[in-house]
Write a structure and sequence with these properties.
By secondary structure, the chain is of the alpha/beta class. It contains five helices and five strands; from the N terminus they run E-H-E-H-E-H-E-H-E-H.
């Protein structure tokens, strides 16, 4: 190895759309030692407002939200991206459905992946790392 390390990409701005306060706090706790910026939304209306007002790099979206479910929120996000001529931001759908049902959900919706709830720290960090494109060298 030449001793040179891959340059570290800029931190991600991650939008978490989750109506459960304890789940939001836990998610934030998992990411607190990372360089990433977490933006929180409690429902579909807040999610769309925050999505449209900032440059999000990754979205974790709960399927079951008050008033507007996650699939409808995702549909509106994608419509806005098309109207603005923007590339699709990766969206990870979260739900307490079984992993098999989650995979069907991913195939039928315009999302990048599925994460079963309750969300595990290792799964969250692995997905963030995948979209960040950087893995620190092990010592």
């Amino acid at each position: 190895m030449s001793g040179s390390q891959t340059p570290i990409p800029p931190p991600l701005t991650i939008l978490l759309v989750e109506d459960d306060a304890s789940s939001r706090m836990l998610f934030a706790h998992y990411l607190k030692t990372t360089p990433h910026h977490l933006v929180l939304a409690e429902d579909g209306d807040q999610a769309l407002e925050r999505f449209q007002s900032g440059a999000c790099d990754l979205v974790f979206l709960d399927l079951h939200l008050p008033r507007t479910n996650g699939l409808k929120v995702l549909e509106r996000m994608r419509a806005w991206e098309r109207e603005q001529g923007r590339a699709a931001v990766p969206v990870i759908m979260m739900s307490s459905v079984t992993p098999g049902e989650g995979e069907v959900l991913v195939q039928s919706a315009d999302c990048a992946g599925f994460m079963p709830k309750p969300c595990r720290k290792a799964d969250i960090l692995a997905l963030v790392g995948k979209y960040w494109g950087y893995k620190p060298m092990e010592s």
